[in-house]
Specification:
This protein is α+β, with helices and mostly antiparallel strands and 459 residues long. Helices cover 55% and strands 12% of the residues. It contains eight helices and ten strands. It has helices at 4-12, 20-24, 52-89, 91-152, 156-159, 165-284, 294-301, 451-456; strands at residues 328-330, 345-348, 354-356, 361-368, 374-381, 384-394, 401-402, 407-411, 428-435, 438-440. Strands 1, 2, 3, 4, 5, 6, 7, 8, 9 and 10 form a ten-stranded antiparallel sheet that branches. Helix 4 runs antiparallel to helix 6 (165-284). The longest helix has 120 residues, at 165-284. The protein is rod-shaped.
């Protein structure tokens, strides 16, 4: 195998050859092992491609859990609303019951007043009877005492005295008139006593009715107060529950929306990565590389954890990052001043300007070579090679994988060698793209061309 110098010297040392030999360097160094960064962020674009499927499954599981919880919350909200509607529908019935209870309270109050008046009358009657009994107490007591004496020791000589017939007659007449009166008085006393007993019984019955009516009144008042308080508390509790459940439902809905958006974003990335992987697989076996849309390419290149090309280089045509922003000094196929044509592009640069990796790839070579300054050769995969020459310093190492758009070095102040552009004075970057050993015109591979390059064309 030839040395690096032996390979580079014939190419760079003659007017008739381009950088063909530099492509051979790509096979001298092993490719970096493929791998994925496992660190993931909360947003879909921050999740490594290798973790997209797991992240999508986890998000779908979370969404299913949220939807199940939302279903239970919706059922609970429906139950609470039904209970509130039931309480509201009972409002008319409760109003009727309250009105009826109020009427019963009014009737009970009227009964209480009537009973109280009746009791006053009964007590007045009892007092009158007591007064009458008090007036007859002495006479009744005397009569009863006389009758007792007569019954115990009847004086026949006094009652019937032959020597005093008139006195005997008067005594007989007195006894005859006193006894009926005593009997009448005894009957009236008995009637009064019975009346008093009746008054007391009536008073007791009326008092019982009064106590019953008062108890009913208190029960009605308690029941009304209980119904009102229970309805008030029930509505408050249900309203609080409803507010909590509705707040939870809104939070769950927001969570579900976020998960749906996350799943949609993940699915978009999964589809893009799948399309990119299919394109890579096709390119690896030499099949036609399918065309990838801009969104698929954007998603593929957004994976900052990638350690291998996001897509085949052919699929990224028109979307590569220009290595340098500057005027096109010499385009592909332009005369080199020595009878040959340029196999790449020469772009004017400013001292200290950063050179970017125009594509994903592994560094096959990085370092000084003769008077061409620092050069970097990238293996872009599928037999594509990228060569950049004329740098003052490089920031990458051989075997390192670099992502498109990352800095690989800086420009200096040196003018490129005459073999590349004999009539140009100032720093410039030489860029060449190859497929196998065949140079390819880089024009049209960039995502955006500087205006100066568009005007210069490919003379």
């Amino acid at each position: 195998m030839k040395s690096v110098g032996e390979t580079l010297i014939p190419f760079l040392g003659t007017r008739r050859r381009s950088l063909l030999a530099l492509a051979a360097l790509a096979g001298l160094f092993p490719m970096a092992a493929a791998g994925q960064d496992t660190e993931a962020g909360p947003a879909p674009e921050n999740i490594p491609n290798a973790e997209l499927d797991d992240a999508s499954l986890a998000a779908q599981s979370d969404l299913q859990t949220v939807e199940d919880t939302m279903a239970l919350t919706a059922e609970r909200i429906a139950e609470i609303r039904a209970e509130i509607e039931a309480l509201d529908s009972d409002a008319a019935q409760l109003a009727l019951e309250l009105t009826a209870a109020s009427q019963r309270i009014d009737l009970a109050s009227d009964d209480v007043r009537v009973i109280e008046e009746r009791l006053e009358e009964l007590f007045a009657s009892e007092r009158e009877i007591g007064i009458r009994l008090d007036g007859h107490d002495r006479s009744i007591s005397n009569l009863l005492a006389s009758l007792q004496r007569i019954t115990a020791q009847p004086p026949p000589a006094i009652i019937v005295d032959p020597s005093d017939a008139l006195a005997s007659a008067r005594a007989a007449m007195l006894l005859g008139s006193v006894l009926p009166q005593m009997q009448a008085r005894a009957d009236r006393v008995t009637e009064d006593l019975n009346a008093i007993a009746q008054v007391k019984r009536s008073a007791q019955e009326e008092a019982g009715r009064l106590r019953a009516n008062l108890a009913t009144l208190n029960e009605e008042r308690l029941r009304i107060a209980t119904v009102i308080e229970a309805r008030k508390q029930g509505l408050e509790w249900l309203s609080d529950d409803l507010l909590r459940e509705e707040a939870e439902a809104r939070a769950l809905s927001d969570r579900a929306t976020s998960l749906e958006q996350l799943i949609a974003g993940l699915q978009t990335r999964i589809d893009a990565v799948t399309a990119a992987d299919e394109a890579t697989a096709a390119a690896n076996v030499g099949s036609d590389v399918p065309t990838l849309d801009a969104e698929t390419l954007r998603v593929a290149f957004s994976d900052t954890s990638r350690t291998e090309p996001a897509v085949p280089l052919a699929a990224a045509k028109g979307h590569l990052t220009p290595p340098l922003a500057g005027a096109l000094v010499a385009g592909y196929g332009a005369a080199d001043g020595f009878g040959g044509t340029s196999k790449g592009q020469l772009i004017a640069a400013q001292p200290g300007q950063t050179v970017l990796a125009p594509a994903d790839g592994w560094v096959s070579y990085a370092g000084l070579f003769l008077n061409y300054g620092q050069i970097v050769i990238l293996n872009a995969g599928q037999d594509y090679t990228v060569v950049l020459a004329g740098l003052e310093s490089v920031d990458v190492e051989r075997g390192q994988f670099v992502q498109m758009g990352t800095g690989i070095g800086t420009m200096g102040t040196e003018t490129p060698p005459a073999e590349i552009r004999p009539d140009f004075d100032g720093p410039a970057l030489y860029f060449e793209l190859r497929q196998g050993e065949t140079p390819i015109n880089p024009q049209g591979w960039w995502v955006a061309q500087p205006q100066e390059q568009q005007e210069s064309g490919t003379n």
